[in-house]
Every structure is written in structure tokens, then in C-alpha cells.
Amino acid sequence: MALAALLASALCSAADAPETNGAAAGQATEEATGADPATEEATGAGPPAEEEAVAGPAAEEATDDAPGSAIEASLARAIDTFGGRDMRAGISRLEELVALYPDSPDVHRTFAYALIRMGGFDEAEGELLSLLGDSTATALETGEARASAVRGAVEPEDILALGIVRAQQGDHRKADRLFRAHADLVGPTEPAAARAFMRLSDMYRSSGVEWGDAEAARTRALALDPGIDAVSTLPAFPTPEEPSVPPETQATEVAETEAVAKRRTEPADTTEAAPVGPGPNDPAEPSGAQEDESKRGGSDG
After folding, report:
1. pLDDT at 269
2. For residue 229, which phi and psi values (nearest 5 degrees)?
3. Rounded to an integer, what is the distance from CA 280 to the centroid of its chain?
4. Mean per-residue pLDDT for 177-183?
5. 71, 86, 167, 228: most buried by Cβ count inside 10 Å?
6. In sequence order, what DSSP letters do the residues of 82-109 get, joined into one string?
7. 195-220, pLDDT tens digit by residue?
């Protein structure tokens, strides 16, 4: 399932910092007990000028067992509304979708990620624990299970999101393990892991924990992704997929397109059509001589 650039607002870029050796892979870490700067700015985008009256998803979807394309289309509209700085309307739409499609993981996932951007961490926690499973989340938070044990069974973005929630709740050790689990799942040397390390850095710095090296984590994040900023460390919304088109439909559409293009490129036929003669049963047209003879005959009478 794709949609991309639908975040609430641009946030301040992360500054470069020298690296130290304090970011050991096994070290626990966490995030600020205070308000998260990314979510602060996202929430501080200000109330929408005037919320437009938008038809709720219930009016758009017919039944709970509607096809996946209907769910994807509704999610795309909700994400677009939320990312267009109309956060309250977007959240309301997502709440309706959660009620309408309670069995859709992407609907719950999108709702949780939107709640994080709005600062609704406790409510987002419930959505994320439902997605991950309480036992899986607990095993990762306590270190009882390594990331490799859940690879393929969980969505890495959900782990990043739960780490943000734990950091905001003050559970820094749990958040540290979750951020590191996310980095392990996406690949600790991949650019995607930069978000987890930047989150670690921000958490170490804002919380004042003594067991985490903020500068080392920040430098590692920038080395993996020099363009990382506060917005990009937020969990990415699911990208609804375009519904697939059957091959036979694609062939028909291609043939119709080519036919239209051919008609447009062919020169118009400007030659005049030849006059059509009389049919075998049609009376012959009188010639000029016959017309004169007829006239003379009429005058003689």
C-alpha cells in the first residue's frame, strides 16, 4: 500500500555534533520527559482557520467488509486532511475509520501515528500495544527478546512509535531498547536507522540521563543520514497502495489510447465527395434540350 509528504509542519533541523565512543550498541537509552519538540511543533501549528464540513467516512463506505481499496482511499483522504494542517478534522476522520474498520491494522496504525503528532501519547500507546501484542512489546522493552526474534512479525515503524511514547512517558530504559530494536530491524548501518539514533540523542539530552551519550548518538544519526531533522524522526504514515488493474483492462485502455492518438495525428480528409448519380429506378433528370422542347410544346397548345 504508498502517500508520502503529509506531515504536519516542518521542524527545526538537527545540528551536527562530534561523535564519541559512548554510544555502545548494548547501552540503554531514552527520550525527554518533557514535551517532544517534534510533536510540540506539530501540535503548535495552530488551529485551522475554519474547518470545512467534510463528509464522514461512514457516508463514504458502505459496509464493514468493504474492499481494501475503499479503506485505502479513505486513509489517503484522512492523511491528506491531517497533513494539510487541519489536524483536528484529520483525527476525527481517523476515529471514524477506526470504528468502521476495527480489523484493519493500517487504520489503527495511522491513527496511532497521528495521535503521537498531536501529543496523545497514552491513547497512542493502546493502539500500538494492540498492533504489536502486549507480550511482544514487553519482551522488547525489557530486553527479554532481541529484535531478530520478531523480524518479519512486527512493523518496525510501530516499534519506533512505541519508543517515542515510552520516552514521553519517562520510561527511558524501555524507550532506549525500543529505539535500538528499531535500528536493528531496519539495519543499523542503513539511513533508515538514523531516526532511532537521533531519537536516542534527543532523549539523552532532554532527560539528563547519565548512561547515554547524546553527542555520540547524534553524530551516528547524521553519519547515516546527513539530512535528518525532527520531522523525519516521527513514524511514517502507511502509504495506501493504488488498486491493481487487471491485465485485460490495461490492454483495452492501451488500445483505446492508441486509437485516439492515431485519430488526432491523421490529417483531415478535405476532398469533396463525388456527386451521386440517380439510381436505376430514379427518373432521369431532363436535359437542357428536353426542357426547351417541353416549353415550346406548352406554348403551341
Report:
1. 55
2. -145, -175
3. 72
4. 98
5. 167
6. HHTT-HHHHHHHHHHHHHH-TT-HHHHH
7. 999 999 999 999 999 999 999 999 99
133: left (phi over 0), alpha (psi -120 to 50) or beta: left
Tell me, what amino acid is at 136? T
pLDDT by residue (tens digit) across 77-96?
A: 999 999 887 899 999 999 99
Dig out the grid coordinates for 157 from the structure. 515503524
Mean pLDDT of the chain: 74
Contact 118, 47 (CB under 8 A): no
User: Who contacts 58 (Cβ-Cβ below 8 Å, separation ≥6)?
Assistant: 96, 100
Contact 93, 134 (CB under 8 A): no
When pLDDT is averaged across residues 151-169 and rounded to a whole number, the result is 96
70-73: long-range pairs with CB below 8 Å, 24+: 71/97, 71/101, 71/104, 71/106, 71/107, 72/1, 72/106, 72/240, 72/241, 72/243, 73/240
For residue range 258-299, what is the model confidence (pLDDT) as tens digits? 655 566 556 655 555 455 455 555 455 555 555 555 555 554
Encode 265-294 in three state secondary structure: HCCCCCCCCCCCCCCCCCCCCCCHHHHHHH
CB 119, CB 35: distance < 8 Å: yes
128: its cell numbers: 500500538
**Which three cell numbers mark 83?**
497533513
Can you list the domains of the chain with their CATH numbers? 37-41+122-233 (1.25.40.10)
**Ramachandran class of 32: left when φ > 0, alpha when ψ lies in -120 to 50, beta otherwise:** beta
**Residue pair 238/245 in contact by the 8 Å Cβ criterion:** no
Q: What is this structure's pTM?
A: 0.62
| E strand segments, 111-248 | none
d(C-alpha 263, C-alpha 73), whole Å: 35
**Do the beta carbons of residue 85 and residue 45 sit within 8 Å?**
yes
Rg value, the chain, Cα: 34
